[in-house]
Amino acid sequence: MRVVIAEDSVLLRAGVQSLLSDVGIETAAAVSNGDDLLVAIREHRPDLVIADVRMPPTFTDEGLRAALAARKEIPGLPVLVVSQYVEGSYAVDLIAEGTSGVGYLLKERVADVADFLEAVRRVAGGGSAIDPDVVAQMLARSRRDPLDALTARETEVLGLMAQGLSNAAIAKQLVVTQGAVENHISNIFSKLGLEASRDENRRIRAVLTYLDSTAVRA
């Protein structure tokens, strides 16, 4: 696997590069700003992009905008975004066109090596990795009637779905049967007016698209 890293902090950039190298993942380029990120992506066509949201010169959303632009140029390009803070609007922008090959993690999650590497592999493989705190904030921002119709357990299952967990993983975490999880998911899609699918990425996309539309109107 070859990655391009975009992070303005020299120490963090070097740390991530070293961490990936230890498990056999090659860093094709490591840059410090959005413009250089786009150049590196076009040159190296990596298997994954790891980008900070806030980078020079304004330290607002340069990394995210570069990642979005890259995905438009290279449809399906896996992108794992990291941020110091929970910035729900940025997460919505990133996943608005689908969660296949998309991740959004808080930087504190990078400190957990096992979790970070799992997210890297999952996103590079076309899956998704959305930080639980980001999902929780997006759920909290959504206050329209469809979500209010969900039970507490259905809301919990919805949050785990949005993190990219499979039915089996949700069942294990909640200590319930997989059949119970499938029933909850069926009820969720029914109450939200969304068509159920066995494709977990499509389920996540439907959930987050809904959260996007409600957040915009709220």
Give short descriptive properties of this protein:
single chain, 218 residues, alpha/beta, Rossmann fold, Arc Repressor Mutant, subunit A, six-stranded parallel β-sheet, 12 helices, DNA binding, Sig_transdc_resp-reg_C-effctor
Describe the structure.
Residues 143-208 form the HTH luxR-type domain. InterPro entries: CheY-like_superfamily, NreC/VraR/RcsB-like_REC, Sig_transdc_resp-reg_C-effctor, Sig_transdc_resp-reg_receiver, Tscrpt_reg_LuxR_C, WalR-like. The modification 4-aspartylphosphate is found at residue 52. This is Two component transcriptional regulator, LuxR family. It comes from Amycolatopsis pretoriensis. With 218 residues, this protein is α/β, with parallel strands linked by helices. It has 2 domains: 2-131, Response regulator (Rossmann fold); 142-217, Orthogonal Bundle (Arc Repressor Mutant, subunit A), CATH 1.10.10. Helix content is 58%, strand content 13%. The chain has 12 helices and 6 strands. A 6-stranded parallel β-sheet has the order 2-1-3-4-5-6, sandwiched between helices. Strand 1, helix 1 and strand 2 form a beta-alpha-beta unit. The longest helix has 18 residues, at 200-217. It is elongated. 37% of the residues are buried. The mean pLDDT is 80.
Topology:
Layout: E1 2-6, H1 10-22, E2 26-31, H2 34-44, E3 48-52, H3 62-73, E4 79-83, H4 88-95, E5 102-106, H5 107-110, H6 113-124, E6 128-130, H7 132-141, H8 145-148, H9 152-162, H10 167-174, H11 178-192, H12 200-217
Parallel strand pairs: 1-2, 1-3, 3-4, 4-5, 5-6
Domain HTH luxR-type: 143-208
Keywords: DNA-binding, Phosphoprotein, Transcription, Transcription regulation
Modified residues (4-aspartylphosphate): 52
